[in-house]
UniProtKB/TrEMBL annotation:
It comes from the Bacteria. This is Branched-chain amino acid transport system ATP-binding protein. It comes from Stackebrandtia albiflava. It holds the Pfam family ABC_tran. Residues 4-231 form the ABC transporter domain. The lineage of its organism: Bacteria, Bacillati, Actinomycetota, Actinomycetes, Glycomycetales. One of its GO terms (biological process) is L-amino acid transport. GO terms for molecular function: ATP binding; ATP hydrolysis activity; branched-chain amino acid transmembrane transporter activity.
Length: 231
């Protein structure tokens, strides 16, 4: 039994269909990457997992339980942590307040753990979200999700627009989380991070999974994946 299992997941907006019967499983202790061009449906998939977008068909199972009709706050409580594309940090709320608000009492992580994990945030704890760099905002968005006590971290394009040095820092932090047992679902338009460290990859094209690879396969030979993405 997988931690997260999507079977035949169909979802969209205003009666239109974006995801067409997606099958995907995510296991603890590793990174599962969904790679696809802009508009392929990655955000739609992440939102359907987080419960922000209802499924119009198929099922979302969490730890063997059907959670397809569960609202977002209940999925959060069950252990699905969502880091949205664009970070959604509040401009006039301080870093420390973001974290204090986000923390669930039964979360294994504390705010002090986040200061240790992201020293840049510690240095800016009194700054408002709007004054942070893109990288700092991304760290804050990840810290905020971690404080909900997730078993799965859903990361929607977490490196969008960030400097390579920050990308590397976020990648290694997420890698350590996965090594320590966290399940990670990573949506990425570019395959570099997935090729470097993902355990499993799938290609999403126009709302359909068109390819599946193991990390070992793409590290031995990334060409089939690159060709599939037409890069
Ligand atoms: N709120 C919305 N209302 C209507 N259509 C939407 C909405 N959000 C996304 N779409 C459409 O759904 C399709 C998939 O978009 P989605 O954002 O899931 O793709 P993506 O792979 O995450 O791309 P990007 O990297 O650009 O975010 C696109 O055609 C997009 O225009």
């Amino acid at each position: 039994m997988s931690l997260l299992e999507l079977s035949g997941l169909t979802a969209g907006y205003h009666g239109g269909t974006v995801l067409h019967g997606v099958d995907l499983t995510v296991e603890p202790g590793g990174v599962t990457a969904v790679v696809g061009h802009n508009g392929a449906g990655k955000t739609t998939l992440c939102q359907a997992v987080a419960g922000l977008l209802p499924a119009s068909g198929g099922a979302v199972r969490w730890d063997g339980e059907d959670v397809t009709s569960r609202p977002t706050h209940r999925r959060t409580r069950m252990g699905i942590g969502y880091v949205p594309q664009g970070r959604r940090v509040f401009g006039s709320v301080s870093v420390a307040e973001h974290l204090a608000i986000a923390r669930r009492r039964d979360s294994a992580w504390t705010v002090d753990d986040m200061w240790e994990m992201f020293p840049q945030l510690a240095a800016r704890r009194r700054h408002h979200g709007g004054l942070l760099s893109g990288g700092e905002q991304q760290m804050l968005a990840i810290a905020r999700a971690l404080l909900t006590g997730p078993r799965l971290l859903v990361l929607d394009e977490p490196t969008e627009g960030l400097a390579p040095v920050i990308v590397e820092q976020i990648r290694s932090t997420v890698g350590r989380l996965a090594e320590s047992g966290m399940a990670v679902l990573l949506a990425a338009p570019q395959p570099q991070w997935p090729i470097a460290t993902a355990d499993r990859l799938c290609v999403l094209d126009a709302g359909r999974v068109t390819g599946r690879f193991t990390g070992t396969e793409v590290r031995e030979d990334p060409k089939p994946l690159i060709e599939m993405l037409e890069l």
